[in-house]
Design brief:
9 strands, Spore Coat Polysaccharide Biosynthesis Protein SpsA, Chain A, two-stranded antiparallel ribbon, alpha/beta, 41% helix, 233 residues, 10 helices, single chain
Length: 233
């Protein structure tokens, strides 16, 4: 089974409480889940049944996120704050997940169509890890084989390899099969920034969302890119 796992927490050093800041009348993290709900998966089962969506949050975020997760149709799981690799592996074990589509709580402009395309490539190439190169910063996800993360959990010793989920995979190419193709040309805008990490990012996100909010295609990469160019060029 494939699951979208959204990594989220409340505290942020550069923009405290950013995941609950309003974006179009809803908390930012609700807009992230709205985008992730457009990811459909690859197999015939996934195309006809909603793939599982889960918030993997810190324990001190659970009460704040629980009603938002329920509203969005997400499961919610609380785990360690600093050992995020452990948090993901606990989710994998609880829900019997075979492949993880990993997303983060500060990216409300995820390209849902690019996420599906990436996951499809990951499956076709039998990759332990897959990620598009040169997508806009904050537009992408990662597709990871669950057994690779479980192996990383058992073997990773360095703090950065446990705090950021996937570095053990990057650092051991002799063990894991990585698939990191350049994104298709229509999505390849590496100079574009759509994550929310600072006050300036948030203010830009408000402007971008205002242009996108009425578009029926607001979760598609080209639509987001066109809106971005309209607002910021």
């Amino acid at each position: 089974m494939t699951a979208v796992v959204l990594q989220a927490r409340l505290d942020s050093s550069r923009l405290p409480g950013k995941v609950l800041l309003p974006l179009g009348g809803k908390p930012l993290i609700s807009r992230v889940m709205e985008a992730l709900n457009q990811i459909t998966g690859n197999t015939e089962y996934e195309k006809t049944n909603k793939i599982l969506k889960i918030i993997a949050c810190t324990e001190d975020s659970y009460d704040s996120f629980k009603p938002l997760a329920k509203e969005a149709g997400f499961e919610i799981f609380a785990g360690p704050k600093d050992d995020v690799l452990d948090r993901f592996c606990q989710v994998i074990k609880k829900y019997s997940i075979e492949r993880v589509i990993r997303a983060t709580g500060d990216n409300p402009f995820v390209f849902a169509d690019a996420a599906d395309a990436l996951n499809n490539e990951a499956v076709l190439h039998n990759a332990d890890y897959a990620g598009f190169l040169e997508l806009p910063y904050g537009a992408g996800v990662e597709s990871i084989r669950a057994c690779a993360l479980l192996r990383a959990f058992n073997e990773a010793l360095l703090p950065p390899e446990r705090e950021h989920v996937c570095p053990y995979l990057y650092n051991h190419l002799e063990i894991f099969k990585l698939h990191r193709p350049f994104a298709p040309a229509s999505w390849r805008y590496p100079q574009m920034r759509v994550t929310i990490d600072t006050q300036e990012d948030y203010e830009n996100a408000l402007k971008l969302y205002d242009v996108l909010k009425d578009s029926p295609f607001r979760f598609n990469g080209e639509t987001i890119i066109n809106a971005y160019n309209k607002v910021f060029k």
